[in-house]
Amino acid sequence: MKQLKTRLTRFAKRQDGAVAIFFGLAAIPVILLAGASIDMISTMRFKAQLQKASDAAVLAAAVRADLPKAQRIKLARRTFAANIGSAVPAKDFKVKIGKNTVTGDIKAKAGTMFMKMIGVNDMDVAAHAVANFGQNALELALVLDNTYSMHGSKIATLRRAAKNLVRTIHASATSSGASVKIGVVPFTRYVRLPKSWKGKWWLNAPSGRTWVARTCRWRTEWDWSKSNCRTVWRTCYRDGVGYRCKSTRCDWKRSNPRRVYRCSGGYWRSYTWTGCVGSRKDPLFVTDGGYATDKVPGLHNREGHGPNTCPKEIVPLIDVNKRGIGGLISTIGRMRADGDNTYIPGGLKWGWHMLSPNEPLKEAAPYGKIKKAIVLMSDGESTVYADGRQKYHKSGGGAKSRANAVLARLCTNIKKRKIHIYTVAFQITDPATRAAMKSCATDADSHFDASDNTALLAAFDSIARKLAQVYLSE
Questions:
Q1: What is the pTM of this model?
Q2: Given 237, 251, 332, 461, which is the most exposed site by the fewest CB atoms within 10 A?
């Protein structure tokens, strides 16, 4: 009994376990504080996601000011849902459409993991976003590649992208009442002007007929026979696009030579001008003046298909508030991918003419009075060039580098006039052409490398936002 009493006394006096108990109790608030920090970080991340989704939603609705209010609200909620996922119901995103603003608000709850221990199951979070759009006076030329390499889904996507841009800017202009003019320049190897412009003093495009004189001469002719005919497959190219093609190849043999007297000519040859134009001489072909010295050369008999085909007519600047956008949308909708060769400077040159207050077009305001911009889009390198001496664009070695050199000079002269150039390189794989397009743009933010159809739509959407002055204010 005495021994048991001694042991109990010793146990009561021992304190080495008290330290463990003390630290165990002290660790509880430390763990809760660390857990609360984790919950707060998680909540802040969720709030940032809400804000990003809200910003994207109001910007999407602001850009599509051409849509009815109900459709813009649906668009905002779809965009919100696409960015936030299923974490928050899209119907809870409140959208308000104002005259020049789109406002979005969302309230949600962020669940907790550690703070549940003290009865806090969730935390309130909210996001607020406002997008403004207010168009100022603008003159815009859309310079768009219509060559064969744009065939299929590419030209269809370009038509959609260009229409969306026109509608966005028109809606913004209608809302703000600003004066906005837009024109379109489809280009291939050449550019086509309206036939009604025939007779303009700056244009040299006569039509009529000429007598082909009759000539006769002696020449040697042969009888030809063929054998061993076979089908040969090879790679053919159209506007730089390679494809498999076949032809028949035979071994030919000639015999029975004889002298004959042959005549040719003795008839009238007709030539007509249907709007197609070439390039002036160097250095005037990279300027917007000097037409008394060297007129715009008209090209004859450029109809149908093939390497010399001209695209649809250009549409000069149209005041969209006064005349609407029906003509522009119709022209864009009729664009087809047909020309066998590309000459990028030829299209850009007429985009500049469209924005110049000088001849040959005079619809534009004086330089420096309002904002002027060009959107230049191409999907490939130039396959022909202007040599500065002839009106026709020539193919052959060095076409790309010579065309890029002209493009650089042209871009420099345009930017000197304070015209903002946006460039879109659509699936261009050639490094030199991509560099030339990027250098042509006014700044790095004005150049877009579009690798597919989705990227092309996004590029035109971004340009539309910039031109329509859509921005986040809150």
A1: 0.72
A2: 251
